[in-house]
């Protein structure tokens, strides 16, 4: 069963994935052999192995700050299990006595501290997430059938406007074409003279082909995660070790380490609905810590499912002979 404590441990593990990168191995819910009783395994919330040095991380997700007693327990586990270092992470911080005890015993203590809007004005560390769309205008869409005899102009207009699924497929094809052939500047006038159609029917007559012409530009919608935390050590007054930004429903999570590494996780199903006559293109971010040698890691899950909504377009429905 997934509990809040488990989620907290996994979250701390992800932060250490960013801090360690490929210099070591970070393991959640690790099992190690007891040095004094090799037949018995001991559970560790998180282990970090770097250059044969073993770091143990224990997490507490409680309402009250952790006290001296837990620090002494961590020290005992460090000695008993031969850990090179021990880190205690509390979601609610530590008492003053616990911090003093940790400093004397050599136990590192860290916590997540949520930053309010007033503090954000001074640290200026928020990341801007930009959702990008292709925005179409001056559209002229052509439908070509073997015959249009017997239909009035009004009948044809109502019929073509009812083919919502058709436009979703059509403009997705155009989007992929733009993405593969992006050597043009926006705004851009385009003309797709012939698009093959499958299973598109008007008045029970198969559509042999379609054409689209018009203008396209890029539309952007900026977003900033409303919640931000620092991951910092209580052992000294140094700057935060890492920053964590999250959307309310955790569809976006950005972890940025002070050392210059980052990891972004985003669920694309969260992207805002495409405005009329536009289709989702992708996601861009403001500058993130990281270098050209080791760029930020991106974890993309889900996909943008919102349909294309057509407005303010002109249509041609014409006869054409099938080839």
Task: Describe what you observe in this structure.
- The chain is α+β, with helices and mostly antiparallel strands.
- It has 2 domains: 4-114, Trna Endonuclease, Chain: A, domain 1; 125-225 and 265-323, no CATH class.
- It contains 6 helices and 16 strands.
- The chain has helices at residues 4-20, 68-80, 96-105, 117-123, 153-161, 164-180, and strands at 25-34, 37-50, 53-60, 85-90, 108-114, 128-145, 188-196, 201-202, 205-224, 227-233, 242-246, 252-257, 262-267, 278-285, 297-301, 313-319.
Radius of gyration, in angstroms, nearest whole number: 28 Å
Mean pLDDT: 86
Strand content: 35-45%
Number of discrete helical segments: 6
- N- and C-termini, Cα separation: 61 Å
H-E string: HEEEHEHEHEHHEEEEEEEEEE
Major sheet: arrangement of strands: 1-2-3-4-5-10-11-12-13-15
Main sheet summary: 10 strands, mixed
> How many discrete domains?
2
Count the E strands: 16
Bulk shape? elongated
Q: How much helix, percentage-wise, in residues? A: 10-25%
List low-pLDDT spans.
none
- What class, by secondary structure content? alpha+beta
């Amino acid at each position: 069963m997934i509990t809040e404590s488990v989620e907290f441990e996994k979250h701390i593990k992800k932060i250490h994935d960013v801090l360690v990168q490929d210099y070591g191995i970070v393991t959640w819910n690790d099992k190690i052999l007891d040095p004094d009783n090799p037949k018995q395994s001991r559970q560790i919330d998180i282990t970090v192995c770097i250059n044969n040095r073993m770091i143990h991380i224990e997490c507490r997700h409680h309402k009250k700050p952790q006290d001296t007693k837990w620090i002494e327990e961590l020290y005992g586990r460090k000695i008993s299990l031969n850990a090179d270092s021990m880190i205690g992470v509390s979601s609610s911080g530590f008492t003053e006595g616990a911090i003093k005890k940790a400093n004397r015993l050599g136990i590192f203590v860290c916590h997540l501290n949520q930053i309010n809007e007033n503090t954000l004005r001074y640290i200026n560390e928020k990341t801007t997430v930009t959702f990008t769309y292709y925005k179409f205008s001056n559209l002229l869409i052509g439908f070509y059938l073997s015959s249009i005899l017997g239909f009035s102009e009004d009948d044809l207009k109502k019929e073509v406007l009812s083919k919502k699924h058709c436009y979703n497929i059509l403009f997705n094809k155009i989007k992929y074409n733009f993405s593969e052939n992006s050597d043009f500047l926006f705004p851009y006038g385009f003309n797709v003279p012939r698009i093959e159609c499958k299973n598109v029917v008007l008045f029970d007559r198969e559509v042999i082909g379609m054409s689209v012409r018009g203008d396209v530009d890029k539309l952007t919608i900026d977003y900033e995660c409303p919640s931000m935390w620092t991951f910092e050590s209580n052992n000294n007054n140094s700057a935060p070790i890492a920053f964590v930004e999250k959307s309310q429903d955790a569809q976006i999570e950005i972890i940025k380490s002070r050392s210059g590494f980052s990891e972004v996780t985003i669920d694309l199903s969260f992207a805002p609905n495409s405005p009329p006559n536009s289709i989702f293109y992708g996601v861009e971010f403001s500058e993130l810590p990281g270098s050209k040698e080791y760029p930020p890691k991106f974890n993309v899950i889900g996909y943008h499912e919102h349909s294309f909504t057509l407005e303010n377009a002109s249509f041609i429905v014409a006869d054409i002979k099938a080839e």
